[in-house]
Amino acid sequence: MTRIVIIGGGPGGYEAALVAAQLGADVTVVERDGPGGACVLTDCVPSKTLIATSTRIAVMSESAGLGLRFNGGPDGIVGALEADMATVNKRVKDLARAQSFDVAERLAYEDVKIVRGEARLVEPHVVAVGDRRIDADIVLIATGATPRVLPGAEPDGERVLNWRQLYDLPELPEELIVVGSGVTGAELAGAYLSLGSKVTLVSSRDRILPTEDADAAAVLQDVFLRRGMNVMSRSRAAAVERSGDGVIVTLEDGTKVEGTHCLMTVGMVPNTRGIGLEEVGVRCDARGFVEVDKVSRTSVPHIYASGDCTGVLMLASVAGMQGRIAMWHALGEAVQPLKLGWVSSNIFTDPEVASVGVTQHMVDSGDVNARTVMLPLFTNARAKMQGFEDGFVKLFCRPSTGIVLGGVIVAPRASELILGVSIAVQQHLTVDQVAHTFAVYPSLSGSITEASRRLMAEHAY
To answer: Is 267 annotated as a binding residue?
Structure first.
């Protein structure tokens, strides 16, 4: 029986463990924090739970345009919505623990052994956990990553925070300064704005979400500004310091921004140091990410890696697929290499931003020849009914064949809507095929088929 040791119990680890166990291997998962890893316990699951609450309160707060109001009692006083952060944070942490328990139950059902502790490769085929030595025919590194710390802005867990420390706050931050306008910064800035914080978002670039679709970023930034967020573009933080019951963020140009709390969202650092990779010959790049090929294999043939520690795409779905691919390959099963062009992603802001395949930048730069259509969401009947005004559906197709190459959706629940475009991309469907697919009327998904019809009608291919 093949002995497999997986270092890390997040999606890149536990998904791999399930595949390996079902293929008959003897599997041991070593996890420091608990089943599910940081993804379940401190990162993805908690943040999306918080965001779900903030989205709900935002929808309720904006319901007046639909003819609704909240009555505070028989005297006719209109009640005000506010977040009870003690209850919100308790629910966030309880749900994360429940999800971790579910992962543990599933692993136990498949007879996967879980060892709690920190692992280290002491020999190419030996993993140490404290004084214990575990022999392995195959090793999978799935150790994840940790929030990057900006020198001069070290988190203290009280006023200067990383996103893993948010859920221990006893109350809602009154004035929150978010440093970093990437995905995590935008998601949490929007969430706390909806929950009632006064939010300042410090962006080192000329817009938020600098690596995402520019049209999507523009929509989201307009929404943030309209809702009262202070977005400081082309502003780079140099230092953060405590000042009594607040914080002062000093920018590189000397400008000082004051608030009650500061949230640092300036990237991730891989958890690859001190676990014996260099000693056994596993190559990492200059930033410390493990180098892997398209079947998750490292420079050492029997050692694989998956998830955030590889830096390929820091998404739970990608981590899980990397882990599964690694086990299929290691155990001799037929396997299809990871194709990044098929990966769909979502930014859990309000509205959400989902994308898959070819990007607008690839089209604009000439790297990809594609036809494009962008259909505003406010033309959709269902969106009008529900009061959704911000967003769009954008599709890309090949000029000659009409094959769908990718798309971007900015809308409520875009994470659910993008699946149809993902299927079209992966199965090489044409816009004709999508256009002739029945969509429910009225529905937001109807904008996908409508965009396909416009591509079919407006562009000869």
So the answer is: yes
What's the rounded mean pLDDT across residues 242-258?
Answer: 96
Cβ contact 2:25 at 8 Å:
yes
Q: Is 308 labelled a binding residue?
A: yes
Q: Using CA of residue 167, residue 417, residue 450, residue 403, what is the dihedral sign?
A: positive
- Which domain covers residue 431, as residue numbers? 351-458
Query: What's the DSSP call for residue 46?
Result: H
Give the chain's length. 461
Query: Is 182 part of any known ligand binding site?
Result: yes
Does any domain span residue 67?
yes
Same domain, 141 and 274: yes
Is 185 annotated to bind a ligand? Reply is yes
Q: Give the chain's radius of gyration (CA, Å).
A: 24
Distances (CA, A) of 212 to 34, 60, 130: 32, 28, 43
pTM for this predicted structure:
0.95
181 is in an annotated binding site: yes
Which residues, 6 or more positions from 41, have their beta carbon under 8 angstroms from its beta carbon? 33, 34, 96, 97, 100
Q: Tell me: do 12 and 107 sit in the same domain.
A: yes
**pLDDT confidence tier of residue 75, bands split at 50, 70 and 90:** very low
The reply to whether 254 sits in an annotated binding site is: no
365 among the known binding-site residues? no
- Asked whether residue 409 is domain-assigned, the answer is yes
Residues 165 and 134 grouped into a single domain: no
- Closest by Cα among 439, 430, 346, 437 to 395: 430
- CB-side neighbour CA atoms (13 Å) of 444: 26
Other Cβ atoms within 10 Å of 310 Cβ, number = 27
Residues 426, 442 within the same domain: yes
